[in-house]
Amino acid sequence: MSFKSSGNTFVLILLLLSITTLSNAQEEGWTLTTNSNKNYTGIVTANGRIGILPSSNILEIDKIILNNVYDKESPLGVSRILSGMNFGNLDLYINNTKLNNDNISDWKQTLNMKEASFTTSFNYNSIAEVSYTIYALRNVPYSGYIDFEIKALKNIDIKVVGKINTPKEYQTPLSTFRTLKDAETTMPILQTVAKSKLGKHTVGTSATFIWHNINSGKEDQRPELTHTKISEYDNRLSFEKKITKGEQYNFAWTAAQCSTQDFFDPQNESERFVIFNLLTPQKDLLDQHKGLWKDLWKGDIIIDGDLQSQLDVRLALYHLYAFSRGDSNLSIAPMGLSSQGYNGHIFWDTELWMYPPLLVLNQDIARSLVNYRSDRLDVAKRKAINFGYKGAMFPWESDDTGEEATPPWALTGTFEHHITADVGIAFWNYFRVTKDKKWLKERGYPLLKEVANYWVSRATKNNDGSFSIKNVVGANEFASNIDDNAFTNGSAITCLKYASLAAREIGLIPDNKWEEVAEKIIIHKFDDGTTKEHSKYNGDKIKQADVNLLAYPLDIISDQKTILKDLSYYEPKLAEEGPAMAQSVFAVIYARLGDAENAFRLFKRSYEPNKRPPFGALAEAATSNNPYFATGAGGMLQTVIFGFGGLHLTDDGIIQKKPILPSAWKKLTITGVGPEKKTFVIE
User: Is 247 a catalytic residue?
Assistant: First the structure.
């Protein structure tokens, strides 16, 4: 391209400046950076199988969480997801001084959501600049990878120590170091194998160093490795190296962790994953990881005019992607892979809160979430029989087995039955979006049939011919052992109707009892027409939205007058200590009513008080400190997609009705929507 006049040159300069500004603005919406570790809450890097939670302390990992791997929390307790062996703690010595937060400067951490990488950098005594980036590899999902770069500002001697630290609750650990060899290829492997707390699983962790720009299989090209076993719980591998002034030294520490939940021989499998990472060129390995995340981000939400909202929304979506996989048939716990919160169990949080945004933006992941339930259908059928009902009765808290995993003291486990309807609703919505009739025949309808039969057996016929559902805990868990809870009844009605639609879709005649009961289940009202939360409700404070869920997402209440009455009545009754999702529901409803101001107010209220420094990790409530709350992320994403974006799940697929933007936003773009990967732009 050439220009002859100075005017054209000026135009070219302006064009280049505008392109640069646009590029910077786009990158701004992808990264979160901090120079402060005060009141620190880290952001996990995860790949749907393992979660790696960084620390504010340099060269440390707070914890590692293993998805769907459970042991009992205590001999008489319920199951709890495993906190894995920690393979992310390293020591770095420069000129014989061990580095820590007290003797370094210019500490900085950056989360790159686009590439799912977490980078820490710092300066040591003006003689070395150190940076390392953590990946939970999406392409090798049982492994992590920490990529190091040390720039010598003067001649320095370094010593690096990699560790496998086994939590003390593990039994009989065996820690070893071996150098495996095949022809001329040598493969040094640090490894620890142990039993989980009460012996349910064997866990194997392997690790090694990788040196870039040399042949990793050639032993004579590597620094000499030293194995040190402090104890069976503390297994170490180290090397030393001289770095000359101006040299940039690169290496990596990689590890894999496997258990008998997923492998017959987790010890050997963990070795193979490490060997794969060791002998795959660094660029190829990381490009595969980044490429898979690029595919995930084809389903994205782009907000113009409000950078903070953009970052908040993208962080929420990042977590849902990080906590799930399309090839796993696993679900997502309320805290995802960030902690052992709620024991890592699966609740309605998935089906009602996290699943809808993922169903819109990534049907592969959505299929895994529903398949998690159908894989446990037989267990749910046994539970129904054991409680005197027909069909299938899903647990309030589920683990790998599909049996009830709620602590027995919690009444939710015995009485919060709307979960069974929530599962059924999610199944029909999957078919509505994908139109996958083969899946509907093999998985969808068999489950919908059983949950419909459950609700018929669960309902009690009254003298006037109506039906009640008695003795439940509703979505508002402050009220227990109540009759005719609005959301429980509403979700049962919806589920029964969906089962009939599913039967007809595959050419079957639905059970006439499904429609009879659905038409006659009671929804109680106050004298002025406001919907009553349950038969005896008298205006008490509520934990979270219940009645209002009948307007969204159930669409049982559709007349604007009643919707507004219910909104104005129940919003003031929300407890401050309640979870974040209630405000999200109200926000969606207000947006659909065309009230952008109230929708935006509640959108912000649904998560801003819950953000924790320095990155904005979400706690469950404004008064709690238990991030990251993936359920809240699902709720805020629903406000954007189904509220401001105007998207609706219908029997005709995903359609748009009356989108509306808050005044702070110039444009909203939702990409990768549905199987056709449509883009919706709202200006």
Answer: no
Tokens in use for 679?
């883009």
d(CA 126, CA 368): 50
Question: How many angstroms from the chain centroid is the CA of residue 177?
Answer: 35
Of 485 and 212, the one with more pLDDT: 485
Distance CA 93, CA 127 (A): 13
Give CATH 2.70.98.40 domain extents, the chain. 32-296
Residues 593, 560: contact at Cβ < 8 Å? yes
> Is 676 assigned a catalytic role?
no
pLDDT-derived band of residue 156, with 50, 70 and 90 as boundaries? very high
- pLDDT band at 576; cut points 50, 70, 90: confident
Q: Which helix (H) or strand (E) holds 32?
A: strand 31-34
Residue 579: partners with Cβ closer than 8 Å, 6 or more residues away: 543, 544, 620, 621, 629, 631, 632
Distance from the first to the final alpha carbon of the chain: 34
Among 115, 477, 533, 571, the one annotated catalytic: 477
Instruction: List the one residue out of 451, 387, 461 whose CA is nearest residue 418.
Output: 451
Three-state SS sequence of 497-530: HHHHHHHHHCCCCCCHHHHHHHHHECCCECCCCC
**32-296: CATH topology:** Beta-galactosidase; Chain A, domain 5 (2.70.98)
Determine what percent of the chain is predicted with pLDDT higher than 90: 93
Query: Which residues are CB-neighbours of 176 under 8 A, at least 6 positions away?
Result: 190, 191, 192, 235
Give span(s): CATH 1.50.10.10, the chain. 376-541
Distances (CA, A) of 189 to 146, 164, 233, 342: 16, 11, 16, 35
Cis amide leading into 628 (omega within 30) = yes
Gap between the Cα atoms of 635 and 618, Å rounded = 12
Check the CA dihedral 260-266-270-275 and report its sign: negative
Q: In Å, how far from its chain's centre is CA 592?
A: 27
pTM here? 0.95
CB count in 10 Å sphere of residue 449? 20
Place of tokens 């696993």: 330
Residue 472 and residue 454: Cα distance in Å, rounded?
14
Rounded to whole angstroms, how far apart are CA atoms 350 and 369? 8
Check residue 477 and report its DSSP letter: T
Residue with tokens 């009356």: 658
H or E stretch at 679: strand 678-682
The predicted pLDDT at position 220 comes to 53
User: What rounded mean pLDDT belongs to the chain?
Assistant: 94
φ/ψ of residue 242, rounded to 5: -95, 135
Cα torsion for 611, 328, 400, 80, to the nearest 10°? -30
* Architecture in CATH for domain 376-541: Alpha/alpha barrel (1.50)
Burial (0-12, 13-18, 19+ Cβ within 10 Å), 553: buried
